[in-house]
Each structure stands twice: as C-alpha cells, then as structure tokens.
Amino acid sequence: MNGFTVTYEIYTPESIENGDNEETGFCLSGGWNIPIEEALADKEGDYTMSLREALNLANPCEDSGNWFSEIGDSRCNYATGEIELRAIHPPRNITPSSYQRIKRLIGAH
C-alpha cells in the first residue's frame, strides 16, 4: 500500500522557549528532509511512499488519532540541542480497520 507520508519537526532550545518549532517539512524515502516552504512551492512534488519505506524513516510509538508519532529524543543532536521528531501519516482513504492493523503492527499506544 503506497500513499504514506513522513513529516518531521525540528526543535531547538530557542524555538522551544518561544513555544514553536524551528523547521517542519517532509522526509523523502532516501532520508532527505524537504522544508515545508519548499514542498509547498513544488507543485509536482509527490512525497508518498510505502509503509515499509516510511518505517525505515520513522519509529513511531504513539497513535495521535490520524497519524503515528515519535516521542522522546531519539534524534537529538547533543552538541546543538536540536531534537527532530518524525510522524507517519497514512493515506487519506485508509479504512478504520486498516488503520488499526497498522497501529498493532507498529505497536503504537
């Protein structure tokens, strides 16, 4: 099943103080990050991938209701204090039963 997207958010100590994130965007299956500004300007961009590719990019453990999120600081740059969190977004047309199967597969809470 294709149609999954992976998004990221980067937080810095300064952005956390301001109650915001430093950068957001999409992850590509090759591991590259595309900031949201570039993704919105790219009218031809297709950032969807298979669930297997998405799981290679993110390790979600929390069910956010419509997507699966990482929590914690597994992608922390201790030198700069930056933390990157990723989320897997299922296709919009996913059925509730398929969503639940994916939730069980990845062990999300």
Offer a quick outline of the entry.
This protein is α+β, with helices and mostly antiparallel strands and 109 residues long. It has helices at residues 13-17, 36-41, 51-57, 96-106; strands at residues 2-11, 23-27, 33-35, 49-50, 62-63, 68-69, 76-77, 82-89. The chain has one domain.
Structure description:
It contains four helices and eight strands; from the N terminus they run E-H-E-E-H-E-H-E-E-E-E-H. It has 109 residues and is of the alpha+beta class. The chain has one domain (2-106). Strands 1, 2, 3, 4, 5, 6, 7 and 8 form an eight-stranded antiparallel sheet that branches. The longest helix has 11 residues, at 96-106.
Note the topology.
Layout: E1 2-11, H1 13-17, E2 23-27, E3 33-35, H2 36-41, E4 49-50, H3 51-57, E5 62-63, E6 68-69, E7 76-77, E8 82-89, H4 96-106
Antiparallel strand pairs: 1-2, 1-4, 1-8, 2-3, 5-6, 6-8, 7-8
| Major sheet summary line | 8 strands, antiparallel
Kindly, what is the distance between the CA atoms of the first and last residues, rounded to a whole number of angstroms? 22 Å
Number of strands: 8
Q: In one word, what is the shape?
A: globular
Structural class: alpha+beta
> What does the average pLDDT come to?
90
SS field, number of helical segments: 4
Count of spatially separate domains: 1
Beta-strand content: 25-35%
Helix-strand pattern = EHEEHEHEEEEH
